[in-house]
Every structure is written in C-alpha cells, then in structure tokens.
Amino acid sequence: MSLPGSRLLLVVIMMSLPLVLGAESSNPPVSAVHQMPEAKASLHDRLGEVSAMVKALPGTADSGTLSERLKKAALEVALEQAKAGITAASDADARTLLEEIGKAATLSADTMLAPGKESNTASALRLPRVSTHNPYLERMVSGATLELKTPDIRWPKETANSKAFDSAPLGINCRTLAIKMQGWLWLLVNPASPLQGNPEVLARFLRIAHAYADALYVEGGSFLKMDKSTAAVSIVSNVDGVFDRYALSPASSALREFSEIYPRLLLPSQKALWDRAMHTAGSLVSAKIEPREGSYAVADLSQAFELINFGLYLHDDTYLKKAKLLIEAQAGNIYPDGGIAANDHQNDANLLHDSSTAQMAGIYEITQDPKLEELLRKTEWYGPVSSGKMGEFWTVASWKDLWNSSNAPAGGEPVAALTGNPYLRGMLDKTLQELSPPKKWAENRASVAWYRDDVKPLPLPDNYTIIDRNINGPRAWYGRFNYAATLRPIPQTEPGISTLMGAHVLSAEGKIGQILMGVYPRIRLKGETLNPDGRPFRQAYAWPTSNLQSSLVMGRSFSAISASYLLHQYQGCNKGPDTDWRGRQLWLGLPDRIIGLVEVEPTKEGASAWGVEGILRLGTGGTVYGNPNRLEPQGEGVYRYGDLTINLMGHNFGAIKPREVPFRYPSAPVTELTLLDEKGATDPKGPSSYPLGTHYPELRN
C-alpha cells in the first residue's frame, strides 16, 4: 500500500486455495355502540371547564412566581394528555386526569414544587466540574434555545393499535427522544444551566416523558409472558422501540430523576402510569439478563444502568443487586490497554467501546461507586493505543465485520477527566473543534458534567510500531499510513476473527481515506450467495478463524506474524461449524507497506466446496464518511484504490473480479477484489471435491 508518487506496495500472495402482563393499553375498552352522546358531551364540557381553570391560573411569562409558572406549565401538558386521551377514545383515563387537574389547580404552587427528599442520586443536579466556558454546556444551551423557538410535538395517546412515536418526524426516534429527555431535565434543574426553571423546558420534558412512560407500559406487555405456575417471566418476542438499550438507559434515568426531584408535580394517575411503566420495563430487563453473567459488555452495562434506575425508583433491592453483579463482571472484559470486548472476546469496535464507557460514566454519576471509577480508569490507554488518529475498522471484528466511525474514540470526557491523560485531552479537543449539529444538542449531556480545562493536551505520537495488548498483535502509525494485525486467541465456542490484517491511509486532510478492511481466504459452501436486496448472504461462506495458532516478532520499525487456523462457516454471533479447510498467513509490516502470503488448503481428501476464493475488502469508512473510490487496474495484478496500491503476485486462481458490495447507503459501497478458482469462476451448479494437497495459491520452485 502506498501514497501517491511513491512505489509502496501491498503484496498479497494467495495460493490455490412483579409485573402486569399482557397489557395492551392503560385504558379500559370503550364501546362506541353503548357510549351515549350525552356522556361524550359531558366530557367535552368538563374539558372546557378545567381548561378555563388552568388558563386563569397565575404564571404567565410576565406574572407569577417561578413555582406558579412551572405548575401552570405542568398542568397545561396534562390538559394536552387529556385531549389526546379523548381523541384515542380513552374517555375513562381522560376524565380521571381532568378531575385531578381540577383539584391540582386549587393547590399551592409551592406545595406542588416542593423538592423531593430522595434526590441525592439525581445526576442532573450535580454541578459540572467547569461551569463557565464549558463547550458542552454552551452547545446544549445554544441548541436547546434554538429548539425552543420551534413548535413542539404533541404526542398522541398510545394504544394497542397505534404507537405514539410512529408519528415522529424524520430523524426522531426512541433513542433521540430519550437522550433529549435527559437533556431537557438537566437544563431544567441544574444550577449551572442558564435555562434552569424555564417553564417551556419543563413542558418539553414532560411531553416526551409522559408519552414514553405510556409506551413502555402499553408495549411492554406484548414482549413478556408469565408462567402462572412458577410466576417466572420470559420474553416472547424481540425487544425494540422504547425498550432499545440505547434508549431505555437515558429514558429510565430521566423518568426516575424527575420523580425524585419533583415528586408532587406528577398527578396521581400520571404517577400511577409511570409506576406501571417502570415495573414493566424492569421486569423485561431483568428477564433479558438471566441467561448471561457479564459476557456482553455493551448490553450488560446498559442494562445495569437501567436496573439501577428501576431499583431506585421502585425501591427494589433485587434490581440493584443484579446491576451490581453485571458491573463487577466487567473487570474481566477490559484488556490491558483498555479495550473492551463488546461480546465475549470479540467485536471491541471503537463505537461500542465508547458506548460502554458512557454507560459506566452514567452509572457513576448516579452512584459515585468507586468500582465504576476503577473500571473507567482501566480503559485509559485505549484511545492513544488502539484508536490513535482515527479509529479503525477491522481488529477483532468477528461477526460484525463491517463498521463505521468518523473519529478516533478515546473513551469520552469521563475517562479524560478521571485520568488527566494529556493524549486523551488532545484527542477530545480535536473533536471539539468540529461543529456540533444544533439538532444534536442533547448528546452533549453525557459530557457536560465531566469536562475539565486544566489538563494541557499533547499530540499523539507518530512513526512507531508497538504491541497492542488489546489485540495481541502489532499496531503501527507512520504519517498517514497505519496497519494493525490481531492475533487474539478466541475460544473454540465463539465466532473467530474475520481478518487478521488491516490497513488504512488517511486523507490529506487527516480524515478517513482508503481502508483495507480485510484480507482472507474464503470457501463458498452454498449455491445462493446473494440476498434478495443484493447484499451478500454471508452464511454461504466460511472464512472466520477457528483454533488460531500464531506467532509474532517485533522490531522498532517492523513486525512479522504467522498464523494457522481452520475456517468456520459464518453464522452471525454464533460459532458456525468448522470446515475441512485450513488457512495460513504470513505478514511483514513496514513503515510504508504490508507484504503478505495468504493461502488455503483442504485438511482431508475430498474436501467439499462450491469454490475457493481469496478476498481483499476495501472501503472508505463503511457509510458516508470517506470519499468513495473505484478500483482502477494499473497492469497485470496491480490495482489502485485511491491512495492504496495493491499488487497480487504468484497466484494460481482462475479469475479476478472486483465487485461492489452494498452496505447501508448506496453512495458508499464496499469494494471486494475477489479471486476465484477454476470451479468458482465458471458458475458452478453444485459442490466439488478437492484432493488433499491442493493449495491456493500454489507455491512452485
């Protein structure tokens, strides 16, 4: 692989080769046949009466105390809920809510706004380390102020046949709504917020919060089933939507903390709905974790976060004990240089790494548990070592073998704050120099409390070859060129590594350039190789490693690895069966190129395959982060892919076919340079038997 104007080559030699379940709605059924017109009219009359009472309350922008303004905002949102209930034919719920609004209108505003006595775990109240010239705070306030100038969404009532958030505008989903709930709450209550006590901020929080709680309760029953003989709860379908792990963590936190900070601002039926929602969600999350014992870090930490919120809200120690076990199990998931295996021993991609540290930090903000601080400190060196100038896309990618990212994840502000690491500070400062989209202002909530400005940043080192103890292999950075090879031993019961070696050339601007995402032999096992949408049917192939045996030699400016392994069929997150094929790889890594021998052979006489292949996978960041490139032939066995040069030497394959592989967006496909043996090149009608001693490529004297 080379930069323009230099004859730097990649040479790849490839040889011949306690819950209310079943709840469909929080409302009793209403029969249109038996509902009298008078009752409907009476409900509308009551709506008008209560609306007039709320309108007459003090608390406009120009009058009333802060408590009166907040009380009025909360009751106005409750009126919106009642109207949505009437529209959804949930008359009983609407009538109950209207009566509660009428009673609350007569209460003292100071009584309703009286602070709770159990708010010591409310992270939204904790002052940030830096309250002035805090870039995350400035982004939050700026983005939220712009949003306050736009109309807010009035969510419909959730029913068994209509999900409230289905009406969300494009770009708004359960994750963004949950994160926005946390953002609005922080701005509403934190003493460092210029928007503290803003009634419109309260209204925007409550609109999402009530709709989210309603959805948790109504939708939760469809996911769960209870065994009446044992009272055991099990999950009966895939959990998504409001129960998505990246949504439920912030949502459960926001619901809990608001109820602790303003316990009397929720009307009785609203509080009862939140209680049912938290019971439902807590039972579901608890049922999800039963089969595991801390083996899925990114899920375990998010579920620990959720269980802590459910346990504190419901005063249920069972949830808190389960969360504690999941947290403490993570000590075994962190590698010596701070990498976190997302699932078992694989897939510690940079995006999942930062998701895990964010969940740890969120829990620490609530509990101040020293165990969480210890875990965060252990991840300190992941950013400078494994991420570097730009997060990469290939090491220990087992069953998720394509990734996308546009930056160099460093573990986030929490890790930088606790460790004071100057390299992390420099990496994060680089990110801060980039513009933050105003619509994503709430995403700054996770960092606002942690930012510190008393650490002098240092630029990352350059021109080095080191051992990365996260991947048990070499990692090198030389200007724009970088490579890494993973040799991590994966247990036989888990999916193996998708590629040993990968490389990348940054663009001249220091952004994502061209990436060698994988180099490996591949065995075709089936006839159909494409899904109906044109994407590869990956189960039709065997290529991940099984029983990897390797060795490594390192020098100041070079690395050399050797590896031997069986190929197993791809079956997603499950280990596929081993095949009768063995792969071998030798790689020499230098400051300007990587040179490799990649071969495959049968392990027994008559090994079966539809075809034997060699693959070079090339991309520009997975989606839209790099400028897409075309593979350009430069001569026999020589190709250019942007700033990468590829030389194929000494192979005995029957054909070489470049092809574009769809991935997420049509504008950014992955390019695969595919080497096909004679059988695979002729559109085979069935599998063939290969004699023992067959090699791809075949080495000759």
What is the average per-residue confidence, as pLDDT, rounded to a whole number? 88
Principal-axis shape: elongated
Q: Helix share of residues?
A: 25-40%
Low-confidence stretches: 1-37
Helix count from the secondary structure assignment: 17
Largest sheet: 16 strands, mixed
Radius of gyration: 29 Å
Structural class: alpha+beta
Tally of extended strands? 20
Distance from N terminus to C terminus (CA atoms, Å) equals 27 Å
Query: Beta-sheet strand percentage?
Result: 15-25%
Can I get a quick summary?
34% of the residues lie in helices and 20% in strands.
Any overview of this molecule?
By secondary structure, this protein is α+β, with helices and mostly antiparallel strands. Among the domains are: 10-16 and 462-690, no CATH class; 338-460, no CATH class. The protein is built from 17 helices and 20 strands. It has a 16-stranded mixed β-sheet that branches. Strands 2-3 form a two-stranded antiparallel sheet. Helix 1 (37-55) packs antiparallel against helix 2 (66-87). The model is unreliable at 1-37 (pLDDT under 50).
Q: Which terms would index this structure?
A:
disordered N terminus, 34% helix, 701 residues, two-stranded antiparallel ribbon, elongated, 20 strands, 17 helices, alpha+beta
